[in-house]
Design a protein that fits this description.
alpha/beta; 12 strands; elongated
Length: 273
């Protein structure tokens, strides 16, 4: 049975993890086994629990303890549940986006990249994508549009940042992901796993996203670059394809999250139901 603990003061130490710790403090790189993330809203919390994430505590509006929070609380044994009145919780920045419920959870151990690639035929590769909102939107598109997994460079944003999780609608817990090997040419790593690589970039030798050869590849990794600068020139040079999205009205490029949705729709494994 969970412990329901009333919280009346925004300065209460029980609220520190939700209100006062930075993302870097939550990650706790000095002691990664103690790292945390914050899941917001019942849907996101449920998806995290379904993925095996371990809850540490809940924070929710009082009325949700016996309402929409009850099924989640019942799944979590004796995990403490901090219940606060609305006037306390609205002091949390962005509280209204949480649907009245948050959960602090242990950061799961990430799989190795070899394991993520095994059995996959379509990968999304994110090179140094920095904006958590874009990360979350890309994961949501990957889940919806037939990508088997996501691989990231370690210089990009963390998919378990609070905003990334929220924007993804919890799909960061449904789509397998991990970081690419460091200190080596990761395009060669992907090639060794049987993948052809498609760099999404504008260049003189780029092929159209509609090129039939792309969809005919048995195993394909769609490679997307950082906001603003896009993919590194060396990355483009090492990829098997350079791919452009056909556009009109003089527009030369899309935001990386929008580009990902277009590319995944064309190249993913989506089937109509």
């Amino acid at each position: 049975m969970s412990r329901i603990i009333a919280v009346e003061d925004f300065s209460a130490p029980e609220l520190d993890v939700y209100a006062r710790l930075t993302e870097n403090q939550l990650v706790n790189r000095a002691e990664p086994d103690k790292g945390l993330f914050i899941a917001e809203s019942p849907v996101v919390i449920e998806r995290a629990l379904d993925a095996g994430c371990v809850p540490v505590s809940f924070l929710m509006e009082e009325k949700h303890v016996a309402g929409k929070g009850r099924p989640l609380i019942e799944r979590c044994g004796d995990v403490p549940v901090y219940a606060a009145p609305l006037e306390v919780l609205v002091q949390l920045t962005g509280f209204h986006l949480t649907r009245g419920m948050l959960c602090a959870m242990r950061r799961p151990k990430l799989p190795c990249p070899e394991r993520v690639c095994d059995g996959a035929s379509r990968l999304a590769v994110l090179e140094n994508v920095m904006n958590p909102t874009n990360i979350g939107a890309i994961f949501r598109s990957a889940a919806a549009l037939g990508m088997d997994a996501v691989l990231l460079t370690d210089a990009g944003s963390d998919p378990l940042y609070r905003r990334a999780i929220r924007v993804s609608m919890g799909t960061v817990f449904q789509v397998p992901w991990t970081y690419l090997p460091q200190g080596e040419d990761w395009t060669e790593f992907l090639r060794s796993r049987g993948f052809k690589t498609a760099a999404m970039a504008l260049s003189a030798d780029s092929v159209s996203l509609r090129d039939a050869a792309l969809n005919s590849e048995e195993k394909l990794a769609v490679v997307l670059g950082t906001e603003g600068d896009g993919l590194a020139a060396s990355t483009i040079a090492h990829c098997d394809y350079t791919v452009r999205i056909p556009m009109s009205h003089g527009v030369d490029s899309l935001n990386v999250a929008a580009a990902s949705a277009v590319a995944f729709y064309q190249l993913g494994k989506t089937e109509e139901v």
